[in-house]
Recover the amino acids of this structure.
């Protein structure tokens, strides 16, 4: 906002106003611009108080800047160290007064050390985080490999034949002695020699219908091999003598 | 970023796992398609007790001298035929007693070990003249070259003995 003087020229009301502390800080930081910069500069040249203020501001700014660049202040470690060093005067629960184990009493007080080393604090912290990340990746890779192995095993189990190879052979009621078949009755010594032999042909399923049938495993010529020939023998007359 | 990396790793791990159903289907169908039809041999013998002995045309068959075959002292070769059996439809063979033997290839089982042979699941059934079933169902699991027998049908004072073998 501007006001017009009697002679018609524009006149800034701030021109006569002494610079504020904020304006001095802006001037010290080189952030003041335009007409006000020139006016503040003139005011500082004329006023020794303003000059001393400006000098103090610059000095304080330099100190803060130098300290910030020189070291990183780790307040956390300092606070924790002070807490550890301070005797515990807080009111305790009576149960805490119970005698402690000797080993616990003799244990040296905890030593608090800063995690970040001065000067290399950022680098050290980054190294740790990177290491944790690698551990996580390894763990996840192991989990993925385990899952893959489990699925592979599951797949193999699924691919096994649905019908067991050594399924028990279904044998119809075998009573050749009682069968009314006119054909000669096969001897009973040979039937169903399933155990400890190499069954050449495995009977997976059989339906004798209404007839009486028997499955024989007849040893072949090469006796030492225990190989057998499978024979399905049926009586031509249905069970019960029906035709 | 980290989550994305984990997801990528997990996806990679699962990608290397063969899909069980797809892989099994491929394993199962490949040999079956390769052996959609196999060659088989059927021999039909007439077992009697007429004292004529074992027909030399039958060839060397030591089982005929052992129980239960030894309940007959004579075996004569009535028929020996080779055929192709497949999964599509059973192969029919007319028997000397006018019955019908039907043989079909049900499945081919791949060997579990390298030194083992593949096995063939063979289905067989016998119908008597007039439509009655003598043997409704027989399903065996045999290697190539192994013979199995079905015996018992009455025929001319004896019985019929049928041998079925998948040729190598």
């Amino acid at each position: 906002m501007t006001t017009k003087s009697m002679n018609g020229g524009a006149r800034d009301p701030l021109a006569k106003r002494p610079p504020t502390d904020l304006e001095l800080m802006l001037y010290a930081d080189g952030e003041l611009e335009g007409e006000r910069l020139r006016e503040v500069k003139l005011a500082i040249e004329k006023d020794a108080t303003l000059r001393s203020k400006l000098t103090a501001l610059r000095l304080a700014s330099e100190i803060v800047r130098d300290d910030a660049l020189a070291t990183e202040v780790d307040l956390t470690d300092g606070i924790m160290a002070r807490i550890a060093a301070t005797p515990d005067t807080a009111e305790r629960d009576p149960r805490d007064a119970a005698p402690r184990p000797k080993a616990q009493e003799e244990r040296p007080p905890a030593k608090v050390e800063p995690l970040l080393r001065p000067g290399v604090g950022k680098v050290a912290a980054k190294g740790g985080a990177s290491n944790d990340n690698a551990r996580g990746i390894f763990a996840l890779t192991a989990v993925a490999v385990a899952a893959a192995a489990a699925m592979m095993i599951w797949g193999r189990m699924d691919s096994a034949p649905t019908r067991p190879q050594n399924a028990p052979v279904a044998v119809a009621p075998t009573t050749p002695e009682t069968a009314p078949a006119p054909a000669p009755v096969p001897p009973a010594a040979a039937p169903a020699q399933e155990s400890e032999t190499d069954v050449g042909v495995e009977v997976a399923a059989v339906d004798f219908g209404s007839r009486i049938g028997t499955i024989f495993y007849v040893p072949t010529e090469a006796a030492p091999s225990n190989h057998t020939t499978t024979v399905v023998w049926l009586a031509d007359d249905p069970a019960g003598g029906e035709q | 970023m980290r989550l994305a990396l984990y997801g990528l790793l997990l996806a990679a791990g699962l990608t290397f796992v063969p899909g069980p159903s797809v892989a099994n289907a491929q394993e199962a169908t490949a040999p079956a398609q390769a052996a959609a039809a196999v060659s088989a041999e059927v021999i039909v013998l007439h077992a009697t007790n007429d004292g004529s002995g074992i027909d030399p045309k039958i060839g060397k068959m030591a089982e005929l001298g052992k129980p239960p075959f030894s309940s007959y002292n004579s075996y004569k070769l009535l028929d020996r035929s080779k055929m192709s059996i497949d999964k599509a439809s059973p192969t029919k063979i007319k028997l000397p007693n006018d019955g019908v033997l039907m043989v079909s290839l049900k499945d081919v089982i791949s060997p579990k070990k390298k030194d083992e042979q593949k096995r063939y699941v063979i289905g067989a059934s016998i119908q008597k003249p007039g439509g009655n079933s003598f043997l409704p169902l027989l399903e065996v699991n045999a290697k190539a070259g192994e013979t199995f027998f079905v015996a018992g049908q009455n025929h001319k004072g004896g019985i019929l003995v049928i041998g079925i073998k998948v040729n190598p």
